[in-house]
Amino acid sequence: MKICLTTDTFLPEVNGVTTVLATMRDGLRRRGHEVMVLAPHYGHLTADEAGLYRLGAIPCPGYNQVRLSWPWGRGLHRVLDRFRPDLIHAVTEGPLGLFGRSYAQRRGLPLVSSFHTDFPRYAARYLGSVAVGPTRAYLRWFHQAARMTQTPSDATRDELLRLGLSQAVVWGRGVDTTWFRPERRSTERRALAQAGGRSQVLHVGRLAVEKDVDTLIAAFILAHGRVGAAATFTVAGDGPKAQAVRDALPFARHLGFLARDVLADLYADSDVFVFPSPTETCGLVALEALASGVPVIGARAGGVPSNVRDGITGRL
After folding, report:
1. 260 contacts 228 by C-beta, under 8 angstroms
2. pTM for this one?
Protein backbone atom coordinates (compact mmCIF):
# COMPACT_ATOMS: atom_id res chain seq x y z
CA MET A 1 0.00 0.00 0.00
CA LYS A 2 0.89 3.65 -0.34
CA ILE A 3 0.25 5.36 2.99
CA CYS A 4 0.48 9.09 3.71
CA LEU A 5 0.98 10.19 7.32
CA THR A 6 0.08 13.83 7.98
CA THR A 7 1.41 15.16 11.28
CA ASP A 8 2.00 18.46 13.05
CA THR A 9 4.98 17.10 14.94
CA PHE A 10 7.91 14.97 13.82
CA LEU A 11 11.61 14.42 14.35
CA PRO A 12 13.79 16.17 15.41
CA GLU A 13 11.17 17.30 17.94
CA VAL A 14 11.27 14.81 20.81
CA ASN A 15 7.97 13.63 22.27
CA GLY A 16 5.84 10.51 22.48
CA VAL A 17 4.05 11.22 19.20
CA THR A 18 7.26 11.56 17.17
CA THR A 19 8.73 8.43 18.74
CA VAL A 20 5.64 6.37 17.92
CA LEU A 21 5.30 7.85 14.44
CA ALA A 22 8.90 7.17 13.46
CA THR A 23 8.61 3.60 14.74
CA MET A 24 5.37 3.08 12.82
CA ARG A 25 6.80 4.52 9.60
CA ASP A 26 9.88 2.31 9.78
CA GLY A 27 7.80 -0.76 10.60
CA LEU A 28 5.46 -0.18 7.68
CA ARG A 29 8.40 0.22 5.31
CA ARG A 30 9.97 -3.02 6.55
CA ARG A 31 6.69 -4.74 5.74
CA GLY A 32 6.85 -3.55 2.14
CA HIS A 33 4.56 -0.52 2.25
CA GLU A 34 5.48 2.82 0.70
CA VAL A 35 5.14 5.61 3.24
CA MET A 36 5.14 9.37 2.83
CA VAL A 37 5.26 11.68 5.86
CA LEU A 38 3.96 15.23 5.61
CA ALA A 39 5.42 17.20 8.54
CA PRO A 40 6.62 20.66 9.64
CA HIS A 41 10.12 22.03 9.13
CA TYR A 42 12.44 22.59 12.05
CA GLY A 43 14.97 24.74 10.24
CA HIS A 44 16.03 24.54 6.60
CA LEU A 45 13.40 24.27 3.87
CA THR A 46 14.47 21.20 1.92
CA ALA A 47 13.31 17.63 2.51
CA ASP A 48 15.91 15.77 4.54
CA GLU A 49 15.17 12.23 3.35
CA ALA A 50 13.16 10.31 0.78
CA GLY A 51 9.48 10.00 1.61
CA LEU A 52 9.50 12.97 3.97
CA TYR A 53 7.93 16.21 2.76
CA ARG A 54 8.40 19.13 5.10
CA LEU A 55 6.36 22.29 5.05
CA GLY A 56 7.56 25.69 6.27
CA ALA A 57 6.56 26.36 9.87
CA ILE A 58 6.83 28.98 12.57
CA PRO A 59 7.29 28.49 16.33
CA CYS A 60 4.08 28.30 18.33
CA PRO A 61 3.75 31.47 20.44
CA GLY A 62 4.73 30.62 24.00
CA TYR A 63 6.03 27.17 23.10
CA ASN A 64 8.87 27.44 20.60
CA GLN A 65 9.51 23.69 20.39
CA VAL A 66 6.13 23.23 18.69
CA ARG A 67 6.00 24.29 15.02
CA LEU A 68 2.89 25.47 13.17
CA SER A 69 2.45 25.10 9.40
CA TRP A 70 -0.15 26.60 7.07
CA PRO A 71 -0.70 23.95 4.36
CA TRP A 72 -3.45 25.66 2.36
CA GLY A 73 -2.82 27.64 -0.80
CA ARG A 74 0.59 26.02 -1.39
CA GLY A 75 -0.32 23.42 -3.98
CA LEU A 76 0.26 20.70 -1.40
CA HIS A 77 -2.53 18.56 -2.88
CA ARG A 78 -0.39 18.14 -6.02
CA VAL A 79 2.41 16.65 -3.91
CA LEU A 80 0.01 14.04 -2.60
CA ASP A 81 -1.52 13.52 -6.05
CA ARG A 82 1.92 12.56 -7.39
CA PHE A 83 2.38 10.11 -4.52
CA ARG A 84 -1.10 8.62 -5.17
CA PRO A 85 -1.79 7.35 -1.63
CA ASP A 86 -4.16 4.45 -0.97
CA LEU A 87 -4.82 5.64 2.59
CA ILE A 88 -4.38 8.81 4.65
CA HIS A 89 -3.51 8.66 8.34
CA ALA A 90 -4.17 11.99 10.09
CA VAL A 91 -1.78 11.58 13.00
CA THR A 92 -2.56 14.85 14.78
CA GLU A 93 -5.45 17.30 14.88
CA GLY A 94 -3.50 20.46 13.91
CA PRO A 95 -3.23 22.16 10.49
CA LEU A 96 -1.34 19.34 8.72
CA GLY A 97 -3.59 16.67 10.21
CA LEU A 98 -6.56 18.73 9.13
CA PHE A 99 -5.16 18.97 5.62
CA GLY A 100 -4.81 15.19 5.47
CA ARG A 101 -8.41 14.78 6.64
CA SER A 102 -9.63 17.21 3.98
CA TYR A 103 -7.55 15.60 1.23
CA ALA A 104 -8.88 12.13 2.02
CA GLN A 105 -12.45 13.37 1.89
CA ARG A 106 -11.93 15.23 -1.41
CA ARG A 107 -10.27 12.25 -3.06
CA GLY A 108 -12.60 9.63 -1.57
CA LEU A 109 -9.72 7.86 0.21
CA PRO A 110 -9.90 5.81 3.42
CA LEU A 111 -9.00 7.93 6.45
CA VAL A 112 -7.49 6.70 9.69
CA SER A 113 -6.88 9.11 12.57
CA SER A 114 -5.06 8.79 15.86
CA PHE A 115 -5.65 10.41 19.24
CA HIS A 116 -2.36 10.90 21.08
CA THR A 117 -2.96 13.98 23.21
CA ASP A 118 -5.66 14.71 25.79
CA PHE A 119 -6.44 18.17 24.48
CA PRO A 120 -9.57 18.73 26.63
CA ARG A 121 -7.45 18.41 29.78
CA TYR A 122 -4.73 20.54 28.19
CA ALA A 123 -7.35 23.19 27.39
CA ALA A 124 -8.59 23.17 30.97
CA ARG A 125 -5.06 23.74 32.31
CA TYR A 126 -4.11 26.48 29.87
CA LEU A 127 -7.42 28.24 29.17
CA GLY A 128 -9.80 27.20 31.94
CA SER A 129 -12.90 25.01 32.02
CA VAL A 130 -14.70 27.22 29.49
CA ALA A 131 -12.44 25.84 26.75
CA VAL A 132 -13.18 22.16 27.40
CA GLY A 133 -16.55 22.04 25.60
CA PRO A 134 -15.37 23.65 22.33
CA THR A 135 -12.23 21.46 22.36
CA ARG A 136 -14.31 18.29 22.69
CA ALA A 137 -16.64 19.47 19.93
CA TYR A 138 -13.71 20.03 17.57
CA LEU A 139 -12.20 16.64 18.35
CA ARG A 140 -15.56 14.93 17.77
CA TRP A 141 -15.89 16.68 14.40
CA PHE A 142 -12.31 15.95 13.39
CA HIS A 143 -12.29 12.25 14.19
CA GLN A 144 -15.81 11.32 13.13
CA ALA A 145 -14.66 11.40 9.48
CA ALA A 146 -12.23 8.52 10.12
CA ARG A 147 -13.00 4.85 9.58
CA MET A 148 -10.85 4.10 12.61
CA THR A 149 -9.45 6.29 15.40
CA GLN A 150 -6.46 4.71 17.11
CA THR A 151 -5.51 5.56 20.67
CA PRO A 152 -2.98 4.13 23.13
CA SER A 153 -5.04 2.96 26.12
CA ASP A 154 -8.35 1.52 27.26
CA ALA A 155 -9.05 4.62 29.35
CA THR A 156 -8.62 6.97 26.40
CA ARG A 157 -10.61 4.74 24.07
CA ASP A 158 -13.47 4.74 26.56
CA GLU A 159 -13.38 8.55 26.71
CA LEU A 160 -13.61 8.71 22.91
CA LEU A 161 -16.53 6.28 22.93
CA ARG A 162 -18.30 8.56 25.42
CA LEU A 163 -17.54 11.42 23.04
CA GLY A 164 -19.54 9.56 20.38
CA LEU A 165 -16.62 8.17 18.36
CA SER A 166 -17.72 4.56 18.03
CA GLN A 167 -14.80 3.74 15.71
CA ALA A 168 -12.21 4.30 18.48
CA VAL A 169 -9.88 1.33 19.04
CA VAL A 170 -6.95 0.61 21.33
CA TRP A 171 -3.76 0.90 19.30
CA GLY A 172 -1.46 0.04 22.17
CA ARG A 173 2.14 1.03 22.74
CA GLY A 174 5.49 -0.67 23.01
CA VAL A 175 9.15 0.21 23.36
CA ASP A 176 12.26 -1.08 21.65
CA THR A 177 13.82 -3.42 24.21
CA THR A 178 17.06 -3.55 22.27
CA TRP A 179 17.48 0.01 23.60
CA PHE A 180 15.52 0.06 26.86
CA ARG A 181 16.65 -2.89 28.98
CA PRO A 182 18.04 -3.48 32.49
CA GLU A 183 21.34 -4.85 31.16
CA ARG A 184 22.47 -1.32 30.29
CA ARG A 185 22.93 -0.52 33.98
CA SER A 186 26.49 0.56 34.75
CA THR A 187 28.15 0.79 38.16
CA GLU A 188 30.81 3.05 36.66
CA ARG A 189 28.28 5.56 35.25
CA ARG A 190 26.37 5.57 38.54
CA ALA A 191 29.58 6.40 40.39
CA LEU A 192 30.33 9.28 38.02
CA ALA A 193 26.78 10.59 38.64
CA GLN A 194 27.44 10.38 42.38
CA ALA A 195 24.76 7.69 42.68
CA GLY A 196 27.08 4.94 43.90
CA GLY A 197 25.54 3.52 47.08
CA ARG A 198 22.55 5.86 46.74
CA SER A 199 19.17 5.59 45.07
CA GLN A 200 18.78 7.53 41.83
CA VAL A 201 15.34 9.10 41.42
CA LEU A 202 14.55 10.07 37.83
CA HIS A 203 11.99 12.09 35.91
CA VAL A 204 11.93 12.21 32.10
CA GLY A 205 9.45 14.27 30.13
CA ARG A 206 8.36 17.57 28.69
CA LEU A 207 8.42 20.24 31.37
CA ALA A 208 5.11 21.98 30.82
CA VAL A 209 1.96 22.92 32.74
CA GLU A 210 -0.08 19.95 31.51
CA LYS A 211 2.57 17.53 32.83
CA ASP A 212 1.89 18.77 36.39
CA VAL A 213 5.44 19.91 37.06
CA ASP A 214 4.21 21.58 40.28
CA THR A 215 3.55 18.12 41.72
CA LEU A 216 6.95 16.93 40.47
CA ILE A 217 8.64 19.86 42.22
CA ALA A 218 6.71 19.32 45.46
CA ALA A 219 7.41 15.57 45.45
CA PHE A 220 11.14 15.99 44.84
CA ILE A 221 11.45 18.67 47.54
CA LEU A 222 9.56 16.51 50.05
CA ALA A 223 11.58 13.38 49.25
CA HIS A 224 14.89 15.23 49.29
CA GLY A 225 14.02 16.73 52.66
CA ARG A 226 13.26 13.31 54.11
CA VAL A 227 16.05 11.16 52.64
CA GLY A 228 18.81 13.74 52.27
CA ALA A 229 22.03 12.28 50.87
CA ALA A 230 20.54 8.78 50.56
CA ALA A 231 19.24 9.62 47.08
CA THR A 232 20.12 11.67 44.02
CA PHE A 233 17.47 13.39 41.92
CA THR A 234 17.66 13.81 38.14
CA VAL A 235 15.41 15.60 35.64
CA ALA A 236 15.76 14.95 31.90
CA GLY A 237 13.66 17.02 29.52
CA ASP A 238 12.89 20.56 28.47
CA GLY A 239 9.91 22.79 27.86
CA PRO A 240 8.25 26.06 28.90
CA LYS A 241 8.57 25.27 32.62
CA ALA A 242 12.17 24.07 32.48
CA GLN A 243 13.65 27.17 34.11
CA ALA A 244 11.07 27.09 36.88
CA VAL A 245 11.94 23.45 37.59
CA ARG A 246 15.67 24.23 37.65
CA ASP A 247 15.13 27.14 40.01
CA ALA A 248 12.91 25.12 42.36
CA LEU A 249 15.16 22.04 42.46
CA PRO A 250 18.76 23.29 42.84
CA PHE A 251 19.78 19.98 44.44
CA ALA A 252 18.82 17.97 41.32
CA ARG A 253 20.77 17.24 38.13
CA HIS A 254 19.08 18.90 35.13
CA LEU A 255 20.10 17.26 31.86
CA GLY A 256 17.72 18.72 29.24
CA PHE A 257 16.85 16.62 26.19
CA LEU A 258 19.06 13.59 25.72
CA ALA A 259 20.00 11.41 22.77
CA ARG A 260 18.25 8.05 22.73
CA ASP A 261 21.27 5.99 23.77
CA VAL A 262 22.14 8.35 26.62
CA LEU A 263 18.52 8.30 27.79
CA ALA A 264 18.41 4.49 27.71
CA ASP A 265 21.53 4.40 29.89
CA LEU A 266 20.01 6.89 32.31
CA TYR A 267 16.85 4.83 32.75
CA ALA A 268 18.83 1.66 33.45
CA ASP A 269 21.11 3.46 35.93
CA SER A 270 18.13 4.71 37.94
CA ASP A 271 16.20 3.10 40.80
CA VAL A 272 12.85 4.90 40.78
CA PHE A 273 11.02 6.76 38.00
CA VAL A 274 8.62 9.55 38.99
CA PHE A 275 5.92 10.61 36.54
CA PRO A 276 3.13 12.81 37.98
CA SER A 277 1.41 13.82 34.73
CA PRO A 278 -2.38 13.18 34.91
CA THR A 279 -3.03 14.02 31.23
CA GLU A 280 -1.34 11.07 29.49
CA THR A 281 -3.11 8.94 26.92
CA CYS A 282 -0.28 6.43 27.44
CA GLY A 283 2.86 7.78 29.08
CA LEU A 284 5.53 6.31 26.83
CA VAL A 285 8.35 7.30 29.19
CA ALA A 286 6.77 5.13 31.90
CA LEU A 287 6.93 2.15 29.53
CA GLU A 288 10.57 2.94 28.74
CA ALA A 289 11.37 3.00 32.46
CA LEU A 290 9.56 -0.29 33.08
CA ALA A 291 11.37 -1.93 30.16
CA SER A 292 14.62 -0.75 31.78
CA GLY A 293 13.71 -2.55 35.01
CA VAL A 294 12.81 0.61 36.93
CA PRO A 295 9.60 0.87 39.02
CA VAL A 296 7.32 3.81 38.26
CA ILE A 297 5.55 6.16 40.65
CA GLY A 298 2.81 7.65 38.46
CA ALA A 299 -0.54 9.39 38.57
CA ARG A 300 -3.65 7.24 38.86
CA ALA A 301 -5.07 8.99 35.81
CA GLY A 302 -5.22 8.74 32.02
CA GLY A 303 -3.34 5.92 30.36
CA VAL A 304 -0.67 5.39 33.03
CA PRO A 305 -2.73 2.82 35.04
CA SER A 306 -2.95 0.69 31.89
CA ASN A 307 0.80 0.09 32.14
CA VAL A 308 1.76 0.42 35.82
CA ARG A 309 0.51 -2.33 38.15
CA ASP A 310 0.08 -0.73 41.55
CA GLY A 311 2.25 -2.50 44.13
CA ILE A 312 3.84 -4.78 41.51
CA THR A 313 5.67 -2.66 38.92
CA GLY A 314 5.27 0.64 40.71
CA ARG A 315 2.86 2.86 42.62
CA LEU A 316 -0.11 4.88 41.41
Report:
1. no
2. 0.81
